[in-house]
Amino acid sequence: MNRHMNKTKIYSLLTSYSFIVPALILFAIFNIYTFFDLFRLSFMKSNGLAGSIETFVGLQNYIEIFKDKVWWESVGRAAYITFLALTLQNFVALILALFVDRGIRGETIYKVIFFLPPVLSGIVIGLIWEWIFDGNYGLLNHWLTLFHMEKFCRAWLADPKTALYAIAFIHMWRGFGWGFVIFLAGLQNIDRELYEAADVDGATWWPKFVHITLPLMVPVFVIVSILTILGTMQIYDLIVSTTKGGPGYHTEVPITRIIYSMTGSLNFGYASSQAIVFGVILLIVSMTQIFVSNRLKKND
Amino acid sequence: MFRKGNLFFLFVLFFCLCFIYAGCGKKRSDSDAVIIWHWMTDRHDTFLKLSKQYKAETGKTVIFELSAPTDVYTSKVRAAAQTNTLPDIFSVLGVSQDLSNFIHAGLIHCLTPYMEENHHEWERSFYPNAIGMNAFTEPNQWNVPEGIYGVPIDVTNIQMIYNKDIFKTAGIDKIPETWEEFLKAGDLVTSKTDKQFFVVGFGETWLINTMVRIFAYNLIGEKKLIQTIKGECPYSSAEWIDIFNKFREMSEKKLFAAGIVTMINRNAERLFATGRAAVTYNGSWSVNVFRGMNPDLNYGTMFFPKISDHYPLLIQGGAGSSLMVSEHSLRKKEAVAFLKWMTSKSSQIFLSTETNNLPSNKEAVGQMPAILNEYAKDMDKTFHPALLPVGEDPNIEEATARGIQSIIIGETTPEELAEKITLLKKQTLNESE
Question: Are strands B315-316 and B382-383 parallel, antiparallel or unpaired?
């Protein structure tokens, strides 16, 4: 009887595990193996071409990174766009979500419109905005001319004073829809009775926002912030389709540098170490974010 | 219970293994079609016609797959090389170092035996420069075994192209031949017309580098250029600063089109073809591009303005697009057979007539369209960096091109750029030692 029970238990377990085997194998191949291989490559001098010779160089690639000014400037640029996205993009997303949450007319249409940019391909968005920002036949300059503001006309994506801001603007335009949807979902999950109780106490919209909405939205802010940080730090397709990192290095970001090391100068080992360093930076930022939000929740 | 569970587990495991096997296996077409990756947007339709013609003549299928612009194509080929998923025929765009990396990695099939068949019949059908660009002789800097590794499908050179109507409106009677005349023509265009003077896709760094090389050939000559690449002559020398200064001069006189530093060549071609700019700098392939964009465009070519009398003025060219056969292709013989057919006299005449590109097959030249004569007449005044015994490091080339973008936007001086590249060159040489 016991033997039969054991067998049944073992096969029940095996059956259960068989359900996760496909995911486990795929995860192992595409995540674990690739990660370890990337880590291994970061200690090698290699052009990455299949069949080529790899030479062990120890920490040389990592030492080079710390001397690579262009790399650290690119990290700084990505951080700056991230800061703008975290503040401006999410502020706009929150405001719009608050408006839609109040049950304005045409709520569904707004939801669709606001969520349209995020579902478009980055390359397509880049090409559209490249046309708008173009210095020769761009729509923006055309409008400025119409309103007699010719002095502001410029090649927005080629001017070092505006190129990074133009990229940041396009990125925020593309990304605010995500924040909007998540904020709206968070707002709609807040118990309405809390607002009704506050109404009975005569609270205006500001105390309700500060004392009810904000504290209850903290977990949502954390999620949106982490998504914004990870999404913005890894910005790439918009830059490729608009400025290609130029003028000079003004719109270079970490991913474009990694791609350049990988396919431009065929320095695959260095690209791998750049990827590892960048991954560590993102990990630290995300962990800090979670730690701070946990502290905030505890304080509340 | 026992048997059912056992069977189910085996079934799931089998399914997983099949899935992984199918997913990780090499991509292989279900037919014997030869797959070609190319980047030539203007020639894609003609290539499709060519593949139909080939199918009709031989019964064999060839599939042309387009990836553009060139930067994207280069990345795609390199990524495929890194994952061993190259198609049967492809191209390594870049300098000799890139090609040598691919050869050392065993990714390119050596074509010497095919070229030498019938007393070098195939090899002799090409222009020497065109075949030379795909060949290595021993000894060479990259230690590549002697041989021919690619097939030129056309030849090209990069020229200055001007809009005749704009020049007429600006009152330019004589085509500029010197740098001073060129700048003067620019002043006339910008002051007497509402057009911009010079447009080129400087967002694509390779175009900047070709222009730098033309200046270098003219001012310091090939010998000193080689010395510079070898590290024996610094980029901070007065001549190099003078070369970088040419870009500053144009920028200060506002002769560049707006947004030139991030502009891709396709957009530059559009600006020129629509008559918004007077001069562009582009290859002979642009004849076909302009025909597609504006068949009525009234333009002509002019030789690059010389900046010095020290050395002969040469333009980049002599070799155009080349295709290579993958060493890992399962259809190497079919791929070579197609390339032989593609570079035969009749196919080259067809390609040349349809696409307005200079043929790589010498025998096809007499029958090319008249418009290409302007390019063809300067074929003997060309150089190509791939024919040099040394090649510049890609990081130096990138830094130079980005630095010139910075000079154009006015945030770097030629002197600063020269110092920066000299320093980078020293680091690169130290690392390679």
Answer: parallel
Q: List domains and CATH numbers for chain B.
A: 34-156+319-377 (3.40.190.10), 158-316+393-432 (3.40.190.10)
How far apart are alpha carbons B157 and B286 in whole angstroms? 11
At A222, give phi and psi (nearest 5°): -60, -50
A132, A222 Cβ separation under 8 angstroms: no
- Are B402 and A246 inside 8 Å of each other by CB? yes
Burial class (CB in 10 A: 0-12, 13-18, 19+), B29: middle
Residue B69: asked if its preceding bond is cis (omega within 30°), the reply is yes
Backbone angles phi, psi at B150, to 5 degrees: -150, 165
Q: Please report the pLDDT score of residue B4 as a whole number.
A: 62
Nearest residue, CB atoms, B81 vs list A25, A50, A242:
A50
d(Cα B96, Cα B75) in Å, to the nearest integer?
A: 17
Contact A158 B8 (CB under 8 A): no
Residue A2 lies in a domain: no
CB A215 within 8 A of CB A300: yes
Inter-chain contact B258–A25, Cβ cutoff 8 Å?
no
Residue A275 lies in a domain: yes
Say if the Cβ atoms of B196 and A136 lie within 8 Å.
yes
Are A52 and B101 a contacting pair at CB < 8 A?
yes
Contacts of residue B195 in chain A, CB cutoff 8 Å?
none
| Pairwise CB contact (< 8 Å): A265 & B264 | no
Q: Among A8-17, B41-50, B223-232, which stretch is predicted with the lowest mean pLDDT?
A: A8-17
Q: Which residues in chain A are closer than 8 Å to B102, comparing Cβ atoms? A: 49
CB contact under 8 A, A49 and B81: yes
Report the CATH number that the domain containing residue A115 is assigned in CATH: 1.10.3720.10
Rounded to whole angstroms, how far apart are CA atoms B38 and B66?
A: 5
Type of residue found at A146: L
Mean pLDDT of chain A: 90
Q: Is residue B1 scored above 50 in pLDDT?
A: no
Distance CA B323, CA B104 (A): 17
Calculate how close chain B gets to A52, using CA atoms only, in Å.
4
Looking up tokens 């008249």, which residue turns up?
Answer: B370
Count of residues for chain A? 300
pTM of this structure:
0.81
Separation of alpha carbons B53 and B41, rounded Å: 19
Range of the domain at A179: 65-299
Interior/surface letters A176-212, b for 16+ CB within 10 angstroms, e for the rest = bbbbbbbbbebbeebeeeeeeebeeeebeeeebeeeb
In a domain, A293, yes or no: yes
CA-to-CA dists, residue A43 to A135, A273, B96, angstroms = 44, 7, 26
Residue A237 lies in a domain: yes
User: How many domains is chain A built from?
Assistant: 1
> A262 to chain B nearest CA, in Å?
8
Task: List CB contacts (< 8 A) between B395 and chain A.
Answer: 265
- Is A155–B15 a contact, with Cβ atoms under 8 angstroms apart? no
Q: Between A and B, how many residue pairs show a Cβ–Cβ distance under 8 A? A: 135
When CB atoms are compared, the residue of B16, B24, B258 closest to A155 is B258
The answer to whether the CB atoms of B203 and A262 lie below 8 A apart is no
ipTM of predicted assembly, 2 dp = 0.81
Mutate to test the interface with A, among B142, B144, B262, B417 (most CBs of A within 10 A): B262
Contact residues for B64 (Cβ-Cβ < 8 A; gap 6+)? B36, B38, B44, B47, B48, B51
pLDDT digit string (tens) for A149-174?
989 999 999 999 999 999 999 999 99
